[in-house]
Amino acid sequence: MKERFLNGYNDFVLPFMIGMAFILIYIVIGVFRVIMQLPREDRKKYLLSLITPWILWYNIRDIICDVLLHVKIWKRKPLLGYMHSSIAFGWFMLIVLGHVETFLYTPSRAGLFYYPIFFRFFVMETNHTVRGSFFFFLMDFFLLVVLSGIALAMFKRIRSQVLGMRRTTKNSLPDRIAMYCLWAIFPLRLLAEGFTAGISGGSFLTKSVYWLFSNFLSNDYHIIPTWWAYSSVLGLFFILLPFTRYMHIPTEAFLITLRNAGLKVRHQTKGYAKSMIYSCSSCGLCLDACPMGVQKKNLKYSSVYFIRFLRRGNKKKCEEIADKCLQCGKCVAICPVGVDSCNLKLANRANTPFNIGQSYQYLDEVESLKPAAIFNKPSAQKDHTNIMLTQYPSDLYGKVLYYAGCMTQLTPVISSSVSAILDKSGIDWSYLDKEGGICCGRPLILAGRTKAAEEVIQKNKKIIEESGADTLLVSCPICYKVFKENYALNGINVVHYTQFIDSLIKDGKITLKKGEEKLVFHDPCELGRGSGIYKEPREVLSALGELVPAAKEKEESICCGGSLGSLTLSYEERGHITDSSIENLTANSPQTIVTACPLCLKTFSARSKTPVKDIAELVGSNMQ
Amino acid sequence: MIDFGYTLSPSSAENLDKIDPTLFRELCEVEPDAKKCMACGSCAASCTAGNYTTMNLRRVILLLSRGLDSQALPQLKNCMLCGKCHIVCPRGINTRHLILSICKTYNLDKQ
């Protein structure tokens, strides 16, 4: 091993160093700004999370899995996963090995940024020593890995379908330039190391390139220009980075630490949101996921373009897309970076000014809505988890308060079925809003009217807590989500009726006749992706008939199109979504589509040829 | 005056030539569904807020189209945006967006 140059410097490192310095300063300032933009309590939470051992462990695990190995993409599309992880992990290993080599062979140069990157230029080594050939082989191997990823990336531009993507994002000009830079970096590195391999040595890849070119480009004058080209492209890529989609490479790790600290989106562009915007890789997986994509003209409302406009500060476009979104959450569920675009859109809605605000003072005057004890003796608070199932079955549920909600009032079949089931099971229960009640507040949150929602929530909360109930039973996933997340009901268990029926069956409080009917279950957005309930409704349906799968289900289920989340989507556009959702559900020709949301029931019933039923209706009519 | 058991009420006729339709036109541009309403009243019948107040979307649309903004707008303050009217509307009017658009376009204080 020998250093080729005493001063360990050549002018060609300058472009790289300029780019590197620029991007490092940019990132440091960016991180500082994001942290300063966080509200005080969030900042405290974040800084604390950085010294909490288990959060640190999650951070490290997530950074390795998501940033380097891209496990999430592997799970969905293996070839696409390979493309990403080969570039990310391969590049990472090239950098790490470069540093290892520098530390081992030339510790005196360890402080130089450029030395590990251009190590082959500065240091000669023969591959006859074991240590030398080992590193040569590893470096060439990882270069090959990266090159294979780059080849796939180029191929993806021509035929994205092969890699499992029907549509890809339209790139902006800086994106395209940066992309060509990225494509050029590693072939140029191969060339540069190849030309130098005659002097500095190399392994299977670089030596081969050297032998190949030495036949017709047989002088060493090519060495310096190719190193210049390599360094320039690297430098250009780093300088372009902040203005392109590739900014996600350095910022994703930062986003992971923010997310693991448990922060919430409070503004659509500031703080936590800012790190999300920069972490969006514009990969376009959300294009295929978005239910609105069924109409090609609506592809422009996908999350990827929303984030792009947020980044560019185009308020008009942001508002247009934010108001269009169905809030079904599918793009968030499949996002490999974990950008919570739904909440960004809600924040955008919440920050839209209105001339007329809502206020609900009038609800205080209504006699039937005055908080009062509905159950005779409020029972003491119980720890539900510690009660043996077989021992006190009637106590397990306590006093059940049924809140049907607005939507269920329009689908009386659900409320009457739930009532019948409750009567049959012999539980002490009461119907809260039989004569009409107050909205749960979720529709207001979805419309961005958070202040008005808070007013409604406080009113409902008082009524429910005063009632003396132990369990709040809801039959609408929209209500369920808001009761779970925004109410913080003191000592009251909130359950969705699918969970409730499932446990009634398991405890033997009701028995069902199992039929031969082929059923398919539609996961309502707010119940599935919104609240993570997938298992219980399926278990109930398995007790009723034969459950057949839909083409896409659980996290990937398609919104029914009736969602309250969208503000501006027209009746006709919703119809197209409903049709595509029905097509997805009927892929395995079920006899009945079953859902667990009054809104989905209404929406499907209007357009489906296959009969649509609510899960409670099926249970109610099949009780023994 | 002799009490006949009934009185004359002032005329409720509106001179449509005298109203300023700018805001309503603006509203129709933002949400064209405003013109779709056939005044069936399904929205009012199902309304959560209408259960306790005078909130009546059918009436709001009618009043706004006639330029009687000051009578229409206070009703909107009661709306909980629950979306029942959206589901029941036989004309498929995007009622929630219509209400939000009114809240954005019109201004209560200027009436």
Question: Summary?
Answer:
The complex is a heterodimer of chains A (624) and B (111). Chain A has 624 residues and is mainly α.
Describe this structure as you would to a colleague.
The complex is a heterodimer of chains A (624) and B (111). Chain A is mainly α and 624 residues long. Chain A is 55% helix and 5% strand. Chain A has helices at residues 13-37, 40-49, 53-68, 71-76, 78-105, 119-122, 130-158, 173-200, 204-214, 223-240, 248-260, 272-279, 285-289, 303-312, 315-324, 330-334, 341-350, 393-397, 405-410, 412-425, 442-446, 450-466, 477-487, 497-506, 535-542, 571-585, 598-607, 615-621, and strands spanning 2-3, 123-124, 400-403, 429-431, 471-474, 493-496, 518-522, 546-547, 592-595, 612-614. In chain A, the strands form three sheets. A four-stranded parallel sheet of chain A has the order 4-3-5-6. Chain A has a four-stranded parallel sheet with strand order 8-7-9-10, with helices on both faces. In chain A, strand 7, helix 25 (535-542) and strand 8 (546-547) form a beta-alpha-beta unit. The longest helix of chain A has 29 residues, at 130-158. Chain A is elongated. The termini of chain A are far apart. Chain B is globular and about 50 Å long. The interface between A and B is large, with 39 and 34 residues.
